[in-house]
Amino acid sequence: MEKLNDITKRIEEIERISEIEKCLTCQCFYDTLMEFKEILEKEKLDVALKERLSRLIEKSKVTHDCLGCEPCYPVPISNALHEMSGMAVKSICSPVCRPAPIKLIMKAPAWPVEQGEYIIGQKTSPVAISTLGSDELPESITAKLGKAGFAIIGKTHTENIGIEKIVRNTISNPYIRFIILSGKDTKGHRAGQSLLSMHQAGVNHERRIINSEGRRPVLKNLDFSEIEHFRAQVKIIDLIGCEDITRIEEEVKVCKKKKPGKFDKAPILKKVSRIEAQRPEKLILDPSGFFIIYPKKEEGKIYLEYYRADGTLNEIIFGEDPVLIASTAIERNLVSRLDHAAYLGRELEKAYLSMIYGFKYVQDSA
Fold first, then answer.
1. What is the spatial order of strands in the sheet that 152-154 belongs to?
2. For 263, which DSSP code?
3. Is 95 exposed, middle or buried (CB count within 10 Å of its CB: 0-12, 13-18, 19+)?
4. Residue 129: strand pairing partners
5. Which pLDDT tens digit goes with each residue over 75-112?
């Protein structure tokens, strides 16, 4: 009796899916119907269920392979059928749904350990450079000095996360013994002044930088040992406010002439879990319903149709800004799952870009 109820429930679900044109004409949908047919013949259940399935098979007209839809609505039905029959769940979407992911044969560099907008030079150079709030300065300095002129160069905007990244990238490279602070300091955040204060006076028991003039100078993601290691390893050259590349180049030469050598103490770095993104084993549909998106370039608007889970059109949201459309849908409680909200945001942005760049928008396709 329980199996009959489960199969009846799945029949009802796939009948609702059949109301979506792109699903009805998709190979994925047809394959799921064939799986249904096989199970019904094997189980010898209610004749009425077989008749309902036969009507769906007649209604289905395959015109395309799977478009790579995300979500792909027949997938959870297929998974449920395999579980009912005692077979391993096989569908995350059929192999034709998506092109194989491109494998970039690149090994992640061991250094720098923190991600950011940096230019990497010669790792064994004793000099690192921060241009603080002068965003264009790193490339100008690189053009003048060449990459052999420094270990790493980049901007630093914040008195917390920005400084944390400098500290960790510095102590993980024992060759760096000097940090040149150049460029305009960031207003309010005072990243340069805060880094100088941290180097000179350290942090208090709450890891707040002593004497910092920044708004939130708390280094939450560093251990005290990492901060002290940094203070011992490097000397900071204060050129805050200077955008004169010749002056910065002179200071780099002075630092190099000192030839301080590698710092002789090894740091113990605080480790953070790194998890490679993976495709979910199962697709769970949002019980709140689903969306169909139509960009209208001639109007400069995007139309978002919201359908209840039973396939009933409930309302239409429209506008020019994909962010406002998505936020309106969320505020109206039309989305109940985080993955569905992420999907909606991605598709609305893609629809928006299709109007700007003139490519054809196809919902759920790559």
1. 118-120, 152-154, 127-130, 178-181, 235-238
2. -
3. exposed
4. 153, 180
5. 778 777 777 766 544 444 543 344 444 454 555 568 99
